[in-house]
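Appendix B, example 12.
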Amino acid sequence: MLTARETWVHDAHWEELAQVRCPTLVVRGLDGELGRAEAQEMVRVLPAGRYAEIPDAGHYLHYDQPTAWRAVLEPFLDDIRAPAP
């Protein structure tokens, strides 16, 4: 699996990301490998992107900080499920 992902994991995929039309929440664990600038650029490229950070969490932030994860995820989901005005 690791060998198979080597062909794409280190490449930028900005063009593909820009094609994602659904609301997307980019959540970054402050202790993870994804830097703030790159995460915020992802949100900028996404047509309906939003951004959140969770302290004391790495890449598996939903395991590291499950309560904080839900605190950012649930309002996002509630907002996108709300009927349009």
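The mean pLDDT is 88. The chain is about 45% helix and 15% strand.
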